[in-house]
Amino acid sequence: MSGNSIGKKFKITCFGESHGRCIGVVIDGCPPGLALIQDEVQRELEKRRARTEISTQRREEDKVEFLSGVFKGHSTGAPICMLIWNKKAKSKVYEEYRVKPRPGHADYLALVKYDGFNDYRGGGRFSGRITAAYVMAGAVAKKILGLLNIEILVHTVQIGGVKLSRKITVDEIRSKAYTNFVRCADSKAAEKMKREILKAKEEGDSVGGVVECTVLDMPVGVGEPVFDNLDSDIAKMLFNIPAVKGVEFGAGFRAASLRGSENNDPYTIRDGKVITATNNAGGVLGGLSSGMPIVMRIAFKPTPSISKKQATIDLKKMEETTINVKGMHDPCIVPRAVPVIESAVAIVLADHVLRSSLIKKVGGAQRTEN
């Protein structure tokens, strides 16, 4: 079976299942000489960990281990393998879901595709837990992007029916996004979002939301048209995050209601640099980076595991029945998805800057081309 790897110059292969022994990632293509320590990767994993009443009760340690590719604090140029161990899984409740597939999950589809041999515990390979591998790889990717001063900022802009009502500056996102549990850069909106999640949880239900991602200081002309467009590769990676149901760049779907005269971004010059007066394109034109901030929004569906009684079928009896989903689940996955989005975008950007030969050498006499 294929589908476990992504990238060409900076390629990652993730492995493991939700309730298996571990979750891990192999990175092939990281240049030698990149300064890497476990604490840096651990800090990224800490952002993703569950730790509040709006998160799952599964409290994994998620302590990263380097198995290969790093020696004396630097990448060697060999494949980098990292993993975390699964220690808090409770698998017994998932026996029922082999027969009674959970609505909104891939239980039945996986059963059919893998002829019943799939690891169904905790959703197996279809669980959000696999995104820990993205975060580990993303920590390395962000170090590569740091060589070009490329910055990725992510924050929550909507939870359920609660939306941000004002424009947030990049400075606010940079300083405030991780100061509250919902990862929203507006503290007042964050409190309303938290109440929205807790209300759904009390009712045995769940909510979704929207995350916004902004990439700053991306060089002009990065991307490989026509089938490896920068935006299409980013979107593909984002759709590899369980629960993502929509991705838009710049004006996105709003562009459909604009005229060309409104949607086009006029060129201008500022401080001797070519820029556009507006950014409806979201920093990507023709599949190439325009040099403007890359702006995207990612929509997440509500967590499908809810305690409300739901209709399903009994595959043994081939009859309709009901189910009450048990287990340890997030009433809203969005807050924990913020660092995952950051990592997923970083992985694609690292692949493309390496493919564009923007980074010539990492270790020793570091040299970049802008």
Descriptive terms for the model:
Chorismate synthase, AroC fold, alpha+beta, 20 strands, 9 helices, five-stranded antiparallel β-sheet, about 375 residues, disordered C terminus, single chain
CATH top level is Alpha Beta
The main pleated sheet reads as: 5 strands, antiparallel
Helix content: 25-40%
Order of helices and strands: EEEHEEEEHHHEEHHEHEHEEEEEEEHEE
Structural class: alpha+beta
Instruction: Detail the poorly predicted runs.
Output: 365-370
Count up the helices.
9
CATH H-level superfamily title? Chorismate synthase AroC
Query: How many β-strand runs?
Result: 20
Q: Which fold name corresponds to the CATH topology?
A: Chorismate synthase, AroC fold
> What's the arrangement of strands in the largest beta sheet?
1-2-3-7-4
Radius of gyration: 21 Å
Number of domains: 1
CA-CA gap between termini? 39 Å
DSSP strand content: 15-25%
- What is the approximate shape? globular
Mean pLDDT: 93
CATH architecture grouping: 4-Layer Sandwich
